[in-house]
Design goal:
By secondary structure, the protein is mainly beta. The chain is built from one helix and ten strands. It has one domain: PH-domain like, CATH 2.30.29. Strands 1, 2, 3, 4, 5, 6, 7, 8, 9 and 10 form a ten-stranded antiparallel sheet that branches. β1 and β2 form a beta hairpin.
């Protein structure tokens, strides 16, 4: 978990490289939510689905039907941004990813397992 927290503090987005993202469906597994002012954290399981298709990210969960979240843009190899999310794939097989979702009042860091969509 410490590695996820460190990654959240060091994720920055810089110029694009232009490689396409494959179509994937990723299941978010575990989330750490951080209050950036107090640094208090809470952890919880998640069943949110992330579907990457045609350059866009779609989200769904047991509580919410699928919806278009935003366009996806690669900023460096294996690192993408979409809205408030930074998506870092751990290797070029696109099987696992780390997500960082940041706002002024909360930061969420999570892991997800992916399959070809």
């Amino acid at each position: 978990m410490r590695k996820l927290y460190i990654l959240a503090l060091t994720v920055w987005t810089v110029g694009a490289s232009g490689a396409p993202l494959p179509e994937l469906v990723c299941q978010e597994l575990r989330v750490i939510q951080i209050d950036p002012k107090s640094l208090l954290t809470r952890e919880y399981d998640s069943r949110t689905l992330y579907r990457f298709k045609a350059g866009s990210l779609y989200l769904s969960s047991p509580e919410r039907a699928e919806y278009l979240y935003n366009k996806v843009r690669e900023v460096e190899p294996l690192r993408y941004v979409s809205g408030h999310k930074t998506i870092q794939f751990e290797s070029s097989d696109f099987r696992t990813m780390i997500l960082v979702h940041s706002y002024l009042d909360e930061v969420r860091v999570s892991r997800a397992a992916c399959i070809n969509g």
